Automatic annotation (TrEMBL):
Subcellular location per the Swiss-Prot or TrEMBL entry: Cell membrane
Protein name per UniProt: Arabinose transporter permease
Topology with respect to the bilayer: Multi-pass membrane protein
Signal peptide region: none
Location of the Major facilitator superfamily (MFS) profile domain: 4-378
CDD domains for this protein: MFS_NepI_like (cd17324)
UniProt entry keywords in alphabetical sequence: Cell membrane, Membrane, Transmembrane, Transmembrane helix
UniProt xrefs under InterPro entries: MFS, MFS_dom, MFS_Efflux_Transporters, MFS_trans_sf
C-alpha cells in the first residue's frame, strides 16, 4: 500500500509542477510570447477550464478500463501535453498544448483519490488522499522553485522538457508499484449523474470552487505582486515560492488529519483563518514601505500556503463521502471544481488589474472568497445535522 501511494504521489508531483510552475515564469513567458501579463495569466485559466470541462469526459471515456490501466493512460497524455508545450512557437499553440496537458489532470487526481482511499481502513481515508496530494505539495517545494530557476537560466521551454522527464519517471513508478487488476466502479452513467444532483454533493463542489478561487486570485500574480509592492528580485521570488511550497506540504498533512477528525467544522475554521491571513498580507503590502515589506509578506505567504492546502483533502473526502455510488465521476468533477476555481480566481485577478487595481490589493479578493468558503461550509454542516 505504501509503494502504491508513493507511485500516485510521484505522478501528482509531475502534474503539480506543470500546473504551478507557470506562476513563477509568467513575466518571462509574457515577454517571450509578446503578450501582457494578464493575457499570459489566461494560460492558467485555459488549463483550469480544460480540467473542469474536459476531465469528466476523459473519466467517462476511460470508465470501462480497470483503474490501473486508466491511470497509466492519463500519465501518457500528461507526457504528450508537456512535450507540446515545450515545442509551441507562439501563444495560441501554447494555449492548445496546455489544454491537452490539462485533460489528464482532473481525471488522474479524481481516480487516484478513489484508489488511495480504497487502499486503507475507513479511519485513514482522508490521510491516504493527503499522501497522494503530497506529490502536489512537494511540486511546490521542489518542482516549482527549481523549475522557475531553470526557466530563468535556460528559458521557460527547458522547464517543460524537465517536466516531461518527471512524467516518464512517474509512469515507471505506477507501472512497478500500483496493484494490478484494480476494479472499475460498477453502475451506469445515468445512475451516477443522479448521485451528482444531491444537494450536499453540489455544495461540496461549490466549496472546492470558492477555496481554489481564493487561492488563485492572488497566487497567479504573486511574482509581479511581490516585485511591484516589495521590490522582490527573481531570486527572492524563487525563495518565496519555496517557502509557499513548504507551507502547502505542511497544510496537506494537517488537512488529512482534520479530514479524518471533523470534516466540515475544520473547513469552517480554515476558511476564517485564511481570510485573516490574507487581510494581514494586504495590510503588510499597503502599510510597510518598499523592500521592508518583503520579510513579513513572505512569512504571511508561508502561513497562507499552510491554510490554503489544508482544505484540499477534507474537501476531496467530503465529495467521496456524499457521492457514494458515483465516486469516480464525482471525484473527477471535484477536481474540475478546484480548477474552475483556479480559472475564476485568475480571471478575477486579471480583471482587477486591468481595471486599475494595484497588485498589492489582490489579497482582498482572496479574503472575501475565503469568507464565502466558511459561510457555505456552515450551510452544509447545518444540513448534515
Amino acid at each position: 500500500m505504501t509503494l502504491a501511494l508513493l507511485a500516485l504521489a510521484a505522478a501528482s508531483f509531475g502534474i503539480g509542477t506543470t500546473e504551478f510552475v507557470i506562476m513563477g515564469l509568467l513575466p518571462e513567458m509574457a515577454a517571450d510570447l509578446r503578450v501582457d501579463i494578464p493575457t499570459a495569466g489566461l494560460l492558467v485559466s485555459g488549463y483550469a477550464l480544460s480540467v473542469t470541462f474536459g476531465s469528466p469526459v476523459v473519466a467517462v471515456l476511460l470508465g470501462r478500463l480497470d483503474r490501473r490501466r486508466a491511470l497509466l493512460v492519463l500519465v501518457g497524455l500528461f507526457i504528450l501535453g508537456n512535450a507540446l508545450c515545450a515545442l509551441s512557437p507562439d501563444y495560441r499553440l501554447l494555449m492548445l498544448a496546455r489544454i491537452v496537458t490539462a485533460l489528464c489532470h482532473g481525471a488522474f487526481f479524481g481516480l487516484g483519490s478513489v484508489v488511495a482511499a480504497d487502499l486503507v481502513p475507513p479511519h485513514r481515508k482522508a490521510s491516504a488522499i493527503a499522501v497522494m496530494f503530497t506529490g502536489l505539495t512537494l511540486a511546490n517545494v521542489l518542482g516549482v522553485p527549481f523549475g522557475t530557476a531553470l526557466g530563468h537560466a535556460l528559458g521557460w521551454r527547458a522547464t517543460f522538457w524537465a517536466v516531461v522527464g518527471i512524467g516518464f519517471a512517474a509512469a515507471a513508478a505506477l507501472l512497478a508499484w500500483l496493484p494490478r487488476h484494480l476494479p472499475r466502479e460498477s453502475g451506469s452513467l445515468l445512475s451516477e449523474m443522479r448521485v451528482l444532483r444531491r444537494p450536499q454533493v453540489v455544495l461540496a463542489m461549490l466549496l472546492s470552487v470558492l477555496a481554489s478561487a481564493s487561492l488563485f486570485s492572488v497566487f497567479t500574480y504573486v511574482a509581479p505582486m511581490l516585485a511591484a509592492a516589495a521590490g522582490a528580485s527573481p531570486s527572492a521570488i524563487t525563495g518565496v515560492l519555496l517557502l509557499f511550497g513548504v507551507g502547502l506540504t505542511l497544510g496537506n498533512v494537517l488537512g488529512g488529519r482534520l479530514g479524518d477528525w471533523r470534516m466540515l467544522p475544520s473547513v469552517i475554521g480554515l476558511g476564517l483563518a485564511l481570510a485573516a491571513v490574507l487581510l494581514a498580507l494586504l495590510a503588510i503590502l499597503a502599510l510597510v514601505p518598499g523592500s521592508a515589506a518583503l520579510v513579513p509578506a513572505t512569512a504571511a505567504i508561508g502561513v497562507w500556503g499552510i491554510l490554503a492546502f489544508a482544505l484540499v483533502a477534507p474537501l476531496q473526502m467530503r465529495v467521496l463521502t456524499t457521492a457514494d455510488g458515483a465516486r469516480n465521476l464525482a471525484s473527477t468533477m471535484n477536481q474540475g471544481a478546484f480548477n474552475l476555481g483556479n480559472a475564476l480566481g485568475a480571471w478575477l485577478g486579471g480583471v482587477a488589474i486591468t481595471a486599475g487595481v494595484v497588485y498589492a490589493d489582490l489579497p482582498l479578493i482572496g479574503a472575501v472568497l475565503a469568507l464565502a468558503v466558511a459561510g457555505l461550509a456552515v450551510v452544509a454542516h447545518r444540513l448534515d445535522r
